[in-house]
Known about the structure:
389 residues
Amino acid sequence: MKLERNVKLLEWHNFFVSFVLWGPIAILYFAKVSGSYALGLSVFSVAMLTAALFELPTGIYSDLIGRRNTLILGAVSYVVGFVFYALGGSYLMLLVGAVFEGLARSFYSGNNDALLYDSLAESNQKHELSAVMGKVGAMGQWALAGAGLLGGVIANWSFQWVMWVSVIPQIICLGLSLFIVDTEKLERGKSNIYSHLKEAVLNFKKNKKLRLLTVGDILGFGMGEASFQFRSAFIASLWPIWAIGVAQILSNIGAAVSFRLSGRFIKKFKAIVWLITGGLYSKVINLVALIFPSVLSPVLMTTTSIFYGVGQVAKSTLLQQEFGDKQRATMGSLSSFGGSVFFAIFAVVLGFVADITSPRTALMGVTLAQFVTVWVYWKISKMDVIVAS
């Protein structure tokens, strides 16, 4: 019963951790405080670099010490980071906030999926992983939709207040994390961190499919997250500030439905099929919206969210199937480590290109580059065909 409660708590935890009112206007706020798109995006980069720096220690900590403690530390870090963002006033304050946000990301990245998997496995419900991941992901998207609506209204009045109100949901997350329980099967402290990490790395070395999935995850996250965080700069050239939140809401509603139905979709077609199909649709639609900019472009771009939820669940399901039980969080952190480092570099480059050219031109370049992830997943689908034959 306690482990089943974990699943429900994680759903609500994901809701409140995602209730970030400043999401739609983040790049506008950071660029305003720092003075340029490049410096504004560098705040995201610092958060990701910090996440990368602590990915492995926190993943190993989760495997050897416990999921619950890791979740609590992540919640505390988010509260502190968001407070520094809200204080603002200088680029330095934003960087301090980014460091704590990055630390929080590292605590959550490998840990939360592992906690969900462990809770289901010990309750003999492992077969429900895709469906439950979809429910958890949907809660986050509904939260983003609500936050986008409220954040857009408040942002039209004050960016600073948007940042302060965003601290409250993170405090709620901290409270929820205190009621989480660890699974009894979690093996603690039975190996030192070096041998534990070595075993996790060897799993990547031996498993070609896992390596390709990880490459796709790293490239997809780095380019996808950077372009999504920067998309508001393009939308702001077409819509008023208050309406940016509307675009965010439409995206989140589509993603929420996609997450909620992802379990059914993946049962009907293979997970890898959704990664390829969704990837192609998203890139083509974004290119059309950017090449022919109009007031309808933001609406067109939001339609890509219908594949986002099922794509995320498909990717997570495939990765969890390939991870070893004893290093589940550590291996997830290794993948997140690569994604964070790549994002940190890519986001700054994107910002410089936008400063030199325009947000639209920079986003067009990113979209073209993202087709490489579709090719990676296509390679994985061919591996599955060979194995099946």
